[in-house]
Amino acid sequence: MSIGTPSRYHITVAPAPLPFSPPARFHLQENDEYVKYGHPPFLTPGRGDPYWTPEIISQTWFMAEKGKIPISGAGYGGPFAGPGFDAIWLDMSEIVRPTRDGIHGREYISTSVDLGRKLPFLTVGAGGVEDALPALLELPIPILFNPFPFPTTQRAPVLAAAHAAQTLRTLAILTPDQWSEDLRDDAVIAPRLAVRDLDRYESLWQRARYVELDGGDAFAAARLKAARPDTVMGWYVPLGSTDGAAVEQMVRAGAEVIHLYADEYGQSGRGFLADGLRAIHRYLVERGIRDEVTLITSGGIATAEHVPKAIVCGADAVAIDFTLVVAFGCGLWADKAYCPAENGEFDPGWGAQRLVNDGGLARSAPGVSGGNGHARGTPAARRSRPRDLPAAGGRGVPLALQADPAPTAPAPGDRGPHDGGSALDARPLTGHLDAGRQRPAAGARGVSRGEVGRRIRHPAVHL
């Protein structure tokens, strides 16, 4: 099943300026509308957050307000390597005819993703396919909305995410406390429920096309599936306590979608998000079951380029959360004044347009829509990672493709992708933590949403 009517997918952006004074201020060069890489964001050095940087915050504001792609101008002035996602280089450009340009709309490309379980092979008889096909939910973009990360009594953030999901034809994941009768479109609402809440909120999962079980439970998932065979079931599990063997058990227990989450910096008890994803993806490839399950990831997805990088590392889709707060006009740690949007004090229609503007441009992220302006699409990002192949002469039984050894870090002076270097350098990210930032001990996640909000808004107590 797919959300919306079949048609060529197009996102309409529109200006959505801030209705209040910006709560954060950055130093901009002459004629600049956002902080560009390589330019100092403050007159005094040493300020800021090394992950949710002034560049990411101000460029997200620009995209949300203008519906335009940030341009570096004379050239990219930032680093070509660093911690986290900055340790991954993607260059998917190719020599093509001059008119091929997906970013500016002259070519249609695929950015869709199917949520749900896939069969390892099909049995075809005289009457056609003999297998019962599992339920699938097609999304035109590999981006979902996580619940709004800050506690608020206002409905605007929830309504804005729901309205934007309806426009983008994706999903807005909500917790039970965020649901209300003012949410009319059941096609885009995806409840995330604890097993203990299934009876209490039966009306939610009975109407939803996608449901997430917090923590995952094979018995509960089977119960829901028996009641709603047309609903896609997801298991929401922490990346820090989940390895490849655990995911394999979930898949063999019937898991259709597994949502692996880290904290807002992409960190977990197993290191950075991309490392954990790659390890799990390669493990499933070796077992020959990777294509049977959908992997969603969230935590630390701060900017458009993180979407294709997460996909290359093994995810099928991503969910964003703190990016919602930034898109609504807040600066997280950089706020020097009260940010009304953090408490939901804005018009939901305005907030929805800001998310649509950001979502439309995330679809045009380099590496998904292509490097150097050339259209490649989400399948191109997926092809950059190891995947299952059918066995030669077999009856569709998957053959695990051994993952290539991880490339080593380049030696000083080696060339990067923009000056003739490797087209894909997704080397291990472990050990690239920011100097001076305190990290929780392994398995020590579990802080409350409110505590997470306080930490990210006050850099003195970084995770």
**CATH topology tier name of the domain at 113-123 and 135-399:** TIM Barrel
Q: Can you tell me the overall shape? A: globular
Share of helix among residues?
A: 10-25%
Total number of helices:
11
Please compute the radius of gyration using only Cα atoms: 22 Å
CATH architecture identity of the domain at 113-123 and 135-399? Alpha-Beta Barrel
Largest sheet: 8 strands, parallel
User: Strands of the biggest beta sheet: in what spatial order?
Assistant: 6-15-14-11-10-9-8-7
Any overview of this molecule?
It is built from eleven helices and 18 strands. It is of the alpha/beta class. Helix 3 (202-207) links the parallel strand 8 and strand 9. Helix 1 crosses helix 9 (348-362), helix 2 crosses helix 9 (348-362) and helix 5 packs across helix 6 (273-287).
Short description:
The protein has 11 helices and 18 strands.
Based on the model shown, name its key terms.
463 residues, alpha/beta, TIM Barrel, disordered C terminus
Write the layout of secondary structure elements.
Blueprint: H1 54-66, E1 89-90, E2 113-115, E3 124-125, E4 128-129, E5 137-139, E6 143-145, H2 156-168, E7 172-174, E8 189-194, H3 202-207, E9 210-214, H4 218-227, E10 232-238, H5 244-252, E11 257-261, E12 267-268, E13 271-272, H6 273-287, E14 294-298, H7 306-312, E15 317-320, H8 322-327, H9 348-362, H10 378-382, E16 389-390, E17 398-399, E18 424-425, H11 449-457
Helix pairs in contact: 1-9, 2-9, 5-6
